[in-house]
Give the backbone structure.
Amino acid sequence: MATIKKITVNQYSLKIIQCGILFLLISCKTGITNSSDLTIAKTVEFCELEKHNEELITTEIIYSGVDEYWSAKGNGNCNEDYRNVYLYFDDYYRQKGNKSVVRKLDKIHAEYYKYNAKMTVTGIFQVSPLQENMVINQDTLKTTINGFGHANSYKSQIKIISVDEIKLLEK
């Protein structure tokens, strides 16, 4: 017959365990943690993105740029009326996204004068509330609008979670 040992846990150890469990629960809640979560993304036409602020979306884009100015635009006729969208890849790169996709993105960035890319991306679309984020520097009296990307040049962005397809297009 097995004997059961009584374990005593002091108050300090109990609080550490509770904090650890609470931290794990909060960490899991703050982001999309696996690819099965991507199935909740809405497939959205590029021209309709602004209607989906702070939503998880999937859309098809043309990605191009030069130096530090990189953005996405759609295939449709909305390009005249719709500004380019900044693609925020930092988290994707840090999490070591699909190596094949990362290699293609690296190639596009290195040889921007040769290539654009047609991509299907999934991410969180965000629009900067430009007027609410307007900052006036009291020393210089210059107005800065907090947008996205290099020099805050873009009024919207997609925080990339996954690149589902990528095809290099020669210019």
Observations:
- The longest helix spans residues 11-29.
- The CA atoms of residues 14 and 20 lie 10 Å apart.
- The longest strand covers residues 156-170.
